[in-house]
Amino acid sequence: MATVPFERLVTAPLPRLGLGLAAVGRPAYIDLGRAADLPADRTVEAMRDRAHAVLDTAYALGIRYFDAARSYGLAEEFLASWLDAHPEAADVLIGSKWGYTYTAGWRADAEVHEVKDHSAATYDRQIAETRALLGDRLDLYQIHSVTPDSPALADRDLHARLARLAADGVAVGLSTSGPLQAEAIRAALKVTVEGRRLFTVVQATYNLMEPSAGPALAEAHDAGLTVIVKEAMANGRLATADPDSPLAEVAAQTGATPDAVALAAVLRRPWAGVVLSGAATTGQVTANVRAASVGLDAEQLARLTALAEPAPAYWRHRAELPWS
Q1: Domain ranges of the chain
Q2: What's this model's pTM, rounded to 2 decimal places?
Q3: Which residues contact 257 (CB under 8 A, 6 or more apart)?
Q4: Domain named NADP-dependent oxidoreductase: which ranges (predicted)?
Q5: pLDDT tier for residue 315 given thresholds of 50, 70 and 90
Q6: Contact, 40 vs 27, CB < 8 A?
């Protein structure tokens, strides 16, 4: 099976940081603080300009992995037009995801923003759409938000399609979500095609508030998969910190901002291959990048574990965050 050429990232200025485009590919998302982060007039043109500015900054600062999805509004289109305008960015690795269909019609107040469907028919449609935009720049294609009950884990017809994609040179992975991420990851490790493991990449939510997938991600890493961490900032909940919180205390000790400390704590995990910034502004990209130089000792890391919440409580809170 094809693997993502992450060895190319080893020589990148920031080999373990990536940029996720969920926050800049559509007018509404669930990150906190979007009213201040994004222009009030979120037209397609305004959001394209913002996405390009964030990509410009990320590339200039050394980030070489960019992550999109079919459900991120026009993120793939914005990324494709940025790549067309930047031939020097041939060293960038591109990942995208399928399995959710964007349904909001570019409305921030839509009742439903995306619809999940992990069927082979949806894969057939969405891989064609992704290929039409990203062509042979696509390095990684992941099933979006797999949970233990996802039919994608047992659909042999779908597995055969994904194996053909891998044979064509595109790595196949999955992202996970929900309180049972560890169960989904372990189930994915057992999926094989012709005796070979199908998935070579797993992308999961992991942060100081929601570390429950950590042991399973370590197992995936030990099995040879590349681990990508998403939502390391807990959808903006770790961007700031109460003055008396462990996050604020460690930030003060290190001279770093809370967001950089939160990202640095994830970067310290030996199994974390790439950690995504979900920045919506150029300033946030710049601040997030500082995580690469934040040194955290064992005592500080231990103190930060106090921020962890039970996984069910964390995901209930996340589900209540408004799209804005």
Answers
A1: 6-320
A2: 0.97
A3: 251, 287, 290
A4: 48-308
A5: very high
A6: no
Separation of alpha carbons 246 and 243, rounded Å? 9
Of residues 11 and 92, the one with the higher pLDDT is 92
pLDDT tens track for 171-194: 999 999 999 999 999 999 999 999
Cα–Cα distance measured from residue 231 to residue 223, given in angstroms and rounded to the nearest whole number:
23
279, exposed or middle or buried, with CB in 10 Å at 0-12, 13-18, 19+? buried
Written out in words, the top-level CATH class of the domain with range 6-320 is alpha beta
Confidence of residue 2 (pLDDT cuts 50, 70, 90): confident
